Design the sequence.
């Protein structure tokens, strides 16, 4: 399995827009074959930070997700609203 932790920090005034895109991406991703888990968590201490935690069955499922229309659409919104750092773990 593959786990991604995607840490997001919003530009000033862009947090709500990015969070809505992340929630929409979550809803769509949970429907995809090979998605084991997909969650968005808001920081309790910083108003401009959230994390997306996702788990995929294998490389193919993750690659299919990354090429999907919802991913392309919502990640474009998220990337325009701030910066993201991704940690990847294979287990």
Sequence:
């Amino acid at each position: 399995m593959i786990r991604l932790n995607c840490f997001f920090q919003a530009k000033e005034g862009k947090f709500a827009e990015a969070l809505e895109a992340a929630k929409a991406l979550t809803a769509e991703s949970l429907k995809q074959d090979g998605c084991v888990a997909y969650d968005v968590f808001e920081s309790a201490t910083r108003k401009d930070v959230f994390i997306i935690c996702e788990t995929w069955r294998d490389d193919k499922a993750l690659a299919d997700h990354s090429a999907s229309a919802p991913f392309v659409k919502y990640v474009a919104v998220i990337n325009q609203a701030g910066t993201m750092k991704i940690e990847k773990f294979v287990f």
Observations:
- The chain has a mean pLDDT of 98.
- The helical segments are 15-29, 59-67, 69-81.
- The two ends are 5 Å apart (CA to CA).
- The beta strands are 2-10, 35-42, 49-56, 82-90.
